[in-house]
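Hi R.,

Here's the input for the zinc ion complex you asked about:
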Amino acid sequence: MALVLFSGGQDSTTCLAWALERFERVETIGFDYGQRHRVELGQRAVLREALAGLKPDWGQKLGPDHVLELSALGAISDTALTSTKAIEMGEQGLPNTFVPGRNLIFLTFAAALAYRRGLKGIVGGMCETDFSGYPDCRDDAIKAMQVALNIGMESRFVLETPLMWLDKAQTWALAQELGGDGLVEAIVEHSHTCYLGDRGARHAWGHGCGQCPACVLRAQGFARWKTGK
Ligand code: ZN
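And here is the predicted structure with zinc ion in place:
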């Protein structure tokens, strides 16, 4: 039984499919922290329904969704993800889309909920391979969190990060493997990646502005997967 950190993006949708293949019961959690691309939150229900319809046992395994309101996180961080400033590189070599500690906070809230719901697995789409330099996506950070959460909550949570060592092309390949063309199509059409919250133009890889770092990464990964390079 597992809880999936589900934002409505490509990575977390692939993680949800991965969890539905592996666990008997799967619940989802999302966070509303004042993100500029809040449109992603609206895609969550659409994606959950699409995945539940792809395979009968996925539909049976998919349990409740939980959305936590974390506006305090947006209020204390001054970043391009939570305000309308331009996306650029910051002083420490990190893009200003970095919300300090975001994944650590998400994992802590997820574990608190998982504790109450009796869910042992906590699944997240953190990735060290194609990451944007966010230190809290690193494998060491996640492993340290697993230890801290298990000690602090006297539990045996297992933090699962199926995408940790995959690049974006391999993430598309994993989606294909898990749910075939139907899952790939659902991810292309419904998942949201664009930092600017743009769902206007429909590209081969999905909807987005096509210019921001998140769109570029997604588009490049899709192209590499399609061409097999
Ligand atoms: Zn974009």
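One thing worth noting: The CA atoms of residues 119 and 215 lie 33 Å apart.

Cheers,
M.
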